[in-house]
Design brief:
Elements: E1 14-16, E2 19-21, H1 37-42, E3 51-57, H2 62-72, E4 86-91, E5 94-95, E6 106-107, H3 112-121, H4 148-154, E7 158-166, H5 170-174, H6 206-212, E8 217-221, H7 223-226, H8 236-243, E9 247-249, H9 252-256, E10 266-269, E11 289-290, H10 307-318, E12 324-330, H11 332-338, H12 342-365, E13 369-375, E14 382-384, E15 401-406, E16 412-417, E17 433-438, E18 447-450, H13 453-459, E19 483-488, E20 491-493, H14 494-499, E21 502-509, E22 513-520, E23 523-530, E24 534-539, E25 547-557, E26 560-571
Parallel strand pairs: 3-12, 3-13, 4-18, 7-8, 7-12, 8-10, 9-10, 11-15, 20-26
Antiparallel strand pairs: 1-2, 4-17, 5-6, 13-17, 14-16, 15-16, 19-21, 21-24, 22-23, 22-25, 25-26
Helix pairs in contact: 2-12, 10-12, 11-12
């Protein structure tokens, strides 16, 4: 078998405050030598984000991240997601249905519907429920909870929803639909969601609700759900195209050919069901699948785009002055873990990391972008010893079913699945999972948080103030020279310059202050001073201006100064 580790060409290295983010991953010795306090401090930006990119690895906990890292990079390697400056732990518990609305029982092991609903709405709910509150039974609807995507849509931001699962599956569904059971994906899947049927005055199936929410970019699998007939007669796809003006794309080349949303929102349906994982399956068995020389074989995905392809296209289409919200799910980690398929799960962790690199390449040019990477719940994959005697009645080593692959180190790694009998679907687990972030308000993911906390962070919490010490500590070595990055609107009308102001976003390191000056020739039109890390501000002027203007951003610190110059054009 041949293992292929292809990184996304579009992903560039990003250095934020001296902390390498998304750089090419090398199998280097773990650990570090310099104190990182100043680097982390410089990465803190309390400003509200203009853009939010949320990347979800379904079922992606630290165990499967470790297994994927060992396989793809070796034990000393690091994924881009490992290098994000702010990392925390996130709890994922949900609720159970019950008669007492003031005291629903705790559900310690949740499925993707309530967990995705948790970050989407900021509220807990019960298994199989989509952005809707708990109730007395599964078939009794709860109260609809407004989601982050819906809130941003109301504010005029563009929105996107990308998944390698059916786009109507639980995680993408929670972003912009509300229904009592996740199984009610298409118009003819509504047997247990009768109150939600459009013919009964409801919002319809998940497929219908996603397009009714007019999400600008919808990409994934699940075409079979949209080929189902609605209560009114036409299929959900025909409804999406006629009533909501969606443009349908069905393969990688067609997606690449889309360059604008001017002709309507985009509905990408690349398979009838879930999309194909990166690697062919290696399914664990009681006797032990694979071996010390087994590697994962690349799957034939035909005309399907990769997750990185979809992420890149979504970002390019959504990019605009008002900002956007984009949710991206690498779904097959979870689905292949259910199948005890270690290669399939590993491959989609790599897909998630490649999608992150695309997001980081955009963030490097747009520092007012918040990136969050996390999962929805923990899962069943465990790395176990592979050199001891058998320890179970089935003959497997360390689990009910195992599989062994050869890692990038050249050594064997054995994983075990023990939450279900061999041949049965493995179960989720209730462990806390990783959450990591970079960009504005990324520091809010540190420590131990709950996934409902992401709701307020993605919407933008009230910015806090960062105080600079009156007397900086005397460095034992020469102070670092400041570094500064800046981006500004390329064009603005004269009226908007006087009223709203020209938006300028900056990020600085090794600085104590950042000054922004707006110039017309040698005339100073406006100035603003920001804190040590920079941030986003607006420059307004009462002067009548037309034509080219210059923005000079200067970071000042103990090690000197650094400047960046940007240009813009003022139109009538």
């Amino acid at each position: 078998m041949v293992r292929r580790t292809t990184m996304v060409a579009a992903a560039s290295a990003l250095a934020l405050g001296g902390l390498a983010i998304g750089s090419a991953v090398q199998a280097v010795s773990p650990g570090f030598t310099d104190d990182r306090s100043a680097k982390l401090s410089s990465a803190i930006d309390p400003a509200k984000p203009r853009n939010v990119i949320l990347l979800i690895g379904d079922g992606t906990d630290d165990s499967i991240i470790t297994a994927a890292r060992n396989y793809e990079l070796g034990a000393k390697g690091r994924f881009a997601l490992d290098e994000l400056p702010f990392t925390g732990a996130m709890t994922t518990f949900g609720l159970k249905t019950g008669p007492n609305p003031d005291d629903y029982p705790i559900n310690y092991v949740s499925d993707s519907a309530p967990t995705a609903s948790g970050w989407s709405t900021g509220k807990k709910t019960v298994d199989s429920r989509i952005s809707q509150g708990p109730s007395v039974s599964d078939t009794t609807p709860g109260t609809d909870y407004e989601t982050v995507l819906e809130k941003y849509k109301k504010e005029g931001k563009r929105t996107g929803n990308v998944s390698t699962a059916e786009i109507t599956d639980a995680t993408p569904a929670a972003a912009a639909s509300h229904i009592n059971l996740r199984a009610c994906q298409g118009p003819t899947d509504m047997a247990n969601c009768t109150a939600a049927k459009k013919s009964n005055g409801g919002k319809g199936s998940i497929a219908e609700q996603l397009v009714d929410n007019k999400i600008d970019v919808l990409l994934g699998g699940g075409k079979s759900r949209y080929l189902q007939a609605t209560d009114a007669g036409p299929t959900a796809l025909a409804y999406a195209q006629s009533a909501q003006k969606y443009q349908l794309v069905e393969n990688k080349s067609a997606l690449a050919g889309v360059t604008t949303l001017d002709n309507g929102p985009i509905l990408g349906l690349f398979t009838t069901g879930n999309m194909t994982p990166r690697y062919q399956a290696l399914t664990a068995t009681p006797a032990g699948a694979g071996g010390p020389d087994t590697t994962c074989q690349t799957a034939d995905r035909g005309t399907q785009p990769t997750l990185a392809d979809m992420t890149d296209k979504a970002i390019n289409l959504l990019d605009n002055d008002k900002g956007f919200f984009l949710q991206v799910e690498s779904a097959m980690v979870d689905k292949q873990e259910h199948s005890s398929d270690i290669c399939g799960a590993i491959g989609d962790v790599l897909e998630l990391d490649n999608a992150l690199k695309v997001a980081q390449a955009y963030q490097a040019k747009h520092p007012d972008t918040l990136i969050i990477v996390t999962g929805d719940h923990a899962h069943s994959t465990q790395i176990v010893g592979n050199g001891g005697s058998t320890t179970s009645a089935t003959g497997a080593t360390g689990g009910k079913a195992t599989a062994t692959v050869k890692t990038a180190d050249g050594d064997p790694m054995t994983v075990a699945y023990s939450t279900a009998a061999p041949g049965s679907s493995q179960s989720h687990t209730g462990s806390q999972i990783r959450v990591a972030a970079s960009g504005p308000q990324a520091a809010n993911v540190t420590g131990t948080i709950d996934q409902t906390d992401l709701f307020a962070t993605m919407l933008g919490r009230t910015p806090s103030k960062i105080s600079t010490p009156a007397t900086p500590p005397t460095p034992s070595a020469p102070a670092a020279r400041p570094a500064v990055a800046a981006v500004a609107d390329k064009k603005i009308s004269a009226k908007a310059l006087k009223t709203k102001g020209l938006r300028v976003s900056t990020s600085a390191s090794a600085a104590t202050s950042v000054k922004i000056t707006l110039l017309k020739g040698s005339k100073v039109l406006a100035t603003k001073r920001l804190g040590a890390a920079g941030g986003t501000t607006y420059l307004r002027t009462r002067s009548s201006v037309k034509g080219a203007v210059k923005i000079v951003v200067t970071a000042t610190g103990p090690g000197g100064t650094a400047s960046k110059t940007r240009s813009s054009t003022v139109t009538r």
